Amino acid sequence: MNESKISLINGKLHVPNNPVIPFIEGDGIGPDIWKATKLVIDTAVNKAYGDYRRIKWQEVYAGEKAFEKTGEWLPEATINSIKKYLVAIKGPLTTPIGGGMRSLNVALRQQLDLYACVRPVKWYAGVPTPVKHPERVDMVIFRENTEDIYAGIEWLDGTPEVKKVMDFLTNEMGVTAIRFPETTSIGIKPVSKEGTERLVRAAILYALENKKDSVTLVHKGNIMKFTEGKFKEWGYQLAKDEFSAHDYEGGPWQVIDKDGHQLIIKDVIADAFLQQIILRPEQYDIIATLNLNGDYISDALAAIVGGIGIAPGANINYKTGVSIFEATHGTAPKYKDLDKVNPSSEILSGVMMLEYLGWQEAADFIVKGLKGAIKNKTVTYDFERLMTDATLLKCSEFGKAIVKNM
Ligand SMILES: NC(=O)C1=CN([C@@H]2O[C@H](COP(=O)(O)OP(=O)(O)OC[C@H]3O[C@@H](n4cnc5c(N)ncnc54)[C@H](OP(=O)(O)O)[C@@H]3O)[C@@H](O)[C@H]2O)C=CC1
Ligand SMILES: O=C(O)CCC(=O)C(=O)O
Ligand SMILES: [Mg+2]
């Protein structure tokens, strides 16, 4: 057995003391935030475990760097390496808008079947925010990561393909509601029972493990009845079938009783949810939602606690153990190579990765360092511009400030 390979045995992650962890540096601001992140993670692991534990980083390629080196945007070797070593971390990758290739980020999630995009959102004291009570926000988003309109099934207006689909819809399916059939592009939104169930199951298990008060199914089921509506129905049904949930105050809300703790399963329509997270965020803990809703909600919630400079995430398949940790934000191209942006999103994704490995002591050192740097008002531009008397740090300097405060 290769001692430095993380493995999943009987559903449990086995982590050697020197695990190989593949990383993708990323495009745009990727190299800057990765440098700061690597420094912070390596220092925290060393501080927590000395020479006993150390990550063996293995660079794998995707995006612009991959194209330069191999002529491919997402080489097979990268996918194979992540499958082999199970746990990986990545920087953001560029996706052209409109035409051009499909998202490499989405491709990685789909090819590795990383069905849960897990994005915790909470406020760190001292971070400037646009709301009065950011401390009331403490949520974890479970975003379905492999289906919905992100599956990329779409046809461009004016092509023979879209004409074929249009003919099928009008002639064989009796569709009459397409307003301008000659100039319409078409996209398809697949949402399955299996896809919904594995996502909602992961959200409920997380909520029970962490003794949270509620899981909220966020959907637009009033309009998209058979996709978003079924997501809600399948979610409630799973709570009943697998967790013995029963009606709460007459239903449709459910309640799960476990070890003297009550977990409420509820639902809310997505637009109403987006105003309630600003007005009454304390009513929400764990959010389970479909892919597009989850994308919007991630950035909206991040803004409430200080912006996407401090919004971590993970893409996980709980069955295979394969996971990629990554910031919620993108490549912010205007800041490329300026050593300017906030590396906190990537660093906190590293914290999630360490927690996933069970290396809690190292994760705790990073959070302590981050809190210290923010408390001292030594911060990057995104926070500094909203604070008074703060010291403006570069991306790399902020990494060092975290290390200093560990
Ligand atoms: N998972 C991934 O790899 C993702 C990739 N993308 C891709 O990234 C590219 C750019 O997307 P775009 O829509 O501009 O979104 P970005 O998230 O890249 O940037 C939007 C704005 O967010 C702020 N921001 C982003 N990252 C940071 C940071 N680390 N610290 C501080 N502020 C930050 C900046 O705001 P300000 O201008 O106010 O300073 C920036 O201009 C696209 O190709 C997109 O497809 C997008 C999201 C996720
Ligand atoms: O892949 C992309 O370019 C965007 C993805 C995204 O916005 C997200 O996952 O939050
Ligand atoms: Mg997004």
TrEMBL record:
Cofactor: how bound: Binds 1 Mg(2+) or Mn(2+) ion per subunit.
- Give site residues, Critical for catalysis: 150, 220
Looking at its record, which EC class is this enzyme? oxidoreductase
User: Isopropylmalate dehydrogenase-like domain location, by residue?
Assistant: 20-402
Question: Does this entry carry the keyword NADP?
Answer: yes
UniProt: Mg(2+) binding residues: 295
The catalysed reaction is: D-threo-isocitrate + NADP(+) = 2-oxoglutarate + CO2 + NADPH
Pfam families linked: Iso_dh (PF00180)
Keywords assigned: Glyoxylate bypass, Magnesium, Manganese, Metal-binding, NADP, Oxidoreductase, Tricarboxylic acid cycle
Give binding positions for D-threo-isocitrate: 103, 105, 109, 119, 143
Residues with the modification N6-acetyllysine, per the entry, are 132
* Binding positions for NADP(+) per the UniProt entry: 94, 329-335, 342, 381, 385
Q: Which residues, renumbered to this chain, carry the PTM N6-succinyllysine?
A: 90, 232
EC number per UniProt: 1.1.1.42
Q: Give the superkingdom in one word.
A: Bacteria
Which InterPro entries does the protein's record reference?
IsoCit/isopropylmalate_DH_CS (IPR019818), Isocitrate_DH_NADP_dimer_prok (IPR004439), IsoPropMal-DH-like_dom (IPR024084)
Question: Where does the record place the modification Phosphoserine?
Answer: 103
For this chain's UniProt record, which GO biological process terms are given? glyoxylate cycle; tricarboxylic acid cycle
Q: What cofactor(s) does the depicted protein rely on?
A: Mg(2+); Mn(2+)
Q: Which family does it belong to?
A: Belongs to the isocitrate and isopropylmalate dehydrogenases family.
The record's section on NCBIfam families has: PRK07006.1, prok_nadp_idh
Its recorded name reads Isocitrate dehydrogenase [NADP]
Write down the species: Bizionia algoritergicola
Lineage summary: Bacteria, Pseudomonadati, Bacteroidota, Flavobacteriia, Flavobacteriales
